[in-house]
Amino acid sequence: ARLAQRGDRLIVMAFAAVTPEEAQKHHPVVAILDQENRITETIRG
Question: CB–CB of 27/45 below 8 Å?
Answer without folding.
Answer: yes
